[in-house]
Structures are given as C-alpha cells and as structure tokens.
Design brief:
Blueprint lengths: L15 H9 L7 H9 L6 H10 L5 H14 L3 H4 L2 H11 L2 E2 L2 E2 L7 E7 L8 E3 L2 H9 L9 E7 L4 E5 L6 E4 L7 E2 L13
Parallel strand pairs: 1-6
Antiparallel strand pairs: 1-2, 3-5, 4-7, 5-8, 6-7
Helix pairs in contact: 1-3, 2-4, 3-4, 4-6
Length: about 200
C-alpha cells in the first residue's frame, strides 16, 4: 500500500466530500492499491461518487477504472440514484466491458436476463441471468424493497456494461434505454408476506 493513501485516514463510512478534496489536489494518477484503500474507507453508496470525481479530474486511468467501476456499481445499494445514468454510461464506456473487475471481451450473443422489481423500477440497470435471484428481489422485504414482479429481456451485447458475480447474484449491468422489457408469465406479481 502506498503512503500516499494515508491522506484518507479516519473511520470508515464518513461523508465522501472531505475525502475527495485531498485526492483532487494530487498531480498524479492513483495506483490501483490507493484507489482500493480510498473505496474501502467510505460507504458503498459513496464509492461511485468518489470514483466519478477522481475520473473527472483525470486522477484515475481508464485501465484502473476498469478494475473498479463494476465493483463500485455493485457496492452501492441504489447506484443509479447516486450517479445519473449519463455519468454511469461515460464511466462504463471508458472502462470497457468488465467481469468482476477485469476487462474482458463482451459477450457476442444476446443474453436472456431477469430483474425482480416493482413496475416503476423494471428499467433499472441491475439484471441477472438467474430467475431464482430475480424472484428473491421480486419478493421484496429487504433493503426497503417492495414486492414486485419478475421482468425479462433479451439483451443485446452492446447493452451489457459489466458483470459481477462476487455476491452470487450473477449480476449484469445493462443499459436499458429503449430495451423491450416484459413480465415473466406466472411471476408477474408478488405480495408482501404477512407481518411485513
């Protein structure tokens, strides 16, 4: 670990703004280990904000961005509320397609993917190849989520931005602009369990 990462000392989970200022004063790119330390010392929802600020100030290279953009997405509870979709598009475009933080060739065939969500959030960007994972999200009840439905789409390769498997969710980050999304037959609505 570099001694330059020491500018981020302090407890984990504090506001990201005081942490960004010392990094923005740098004149050199952050190494991957420095960025890893910076991201570990803030909350998951602050990770995308920090990564975006560093990238906009040219303190993170595209290569290093590739290692962290998918993980920053996955670490945030509601990543598309933390950063706007245009910012995410720019970050993912610069990073290239990644799987678990590694830049790899994008799949060449369309992927049948699923999402468990209420109807108003069916076009959000976190999708999965697993109907079982989508069903868990559709059932709601954790993370403040309401019960919803299982949605499906045949996703063209150019819409696939990243893949994250570290939480056993088989997550794909998908740009859903203009994507045809349909409810899965027989899985269109869940209701809250009694007592919730």
């Amino acid at each position: 670990m570099s001694s330059r990462a020491a500018g981020l000392s302090g407890p984990v989970g504090v506001d990201v703004v005081p942490r960004v200022a010392p990094l923005l004063d740098r004149a050199s790119l952050l190494a991957p280990d420095e960025l890893a330390v910076a991201l570990m010392r803030i909350s998951g929802d602050d990770g995308p904000v920090l990564l975006d600020a560093l990238y906009q100030h040219r303190l993170v290279s595209d290569q290093v961005l590739s290692c962290f953009v998918g993980l920053a997405w996955a670490g945030a509870e509601f990543p598309d509320r933390v950063l706007g979709r245009d910012r995410w598009r720019e970050l993912f475009a610069a990073a290239g397609y990644t799987e678990d933080g590694l830049r790899v060739p994008r799949p060449t065939a369309p992927q049948r993917l699923y999402r468990g969500a209420v109807a108003d959030r069916r076009a959000d960007w976190s999708w999965t190849e697993s109907r079982a994972v989508a069903r868990t999200y559709a059932a709601g009840g954790f993370g403040g989520r309401l019960p919803g439905a299982i949605w499906t789409a045949l996703v063209e390769p150019e819409r696939l931005l990243a893949r994250n498997t570290d939480r056993d969710e088989c997550e794909y980050v998908v740009d859903t602009a203009g994507l045809a999304i349909d409810p899965v037959a027989g899985c269109a609505a869940f209701t809250a369990m009694p007592g919730r």
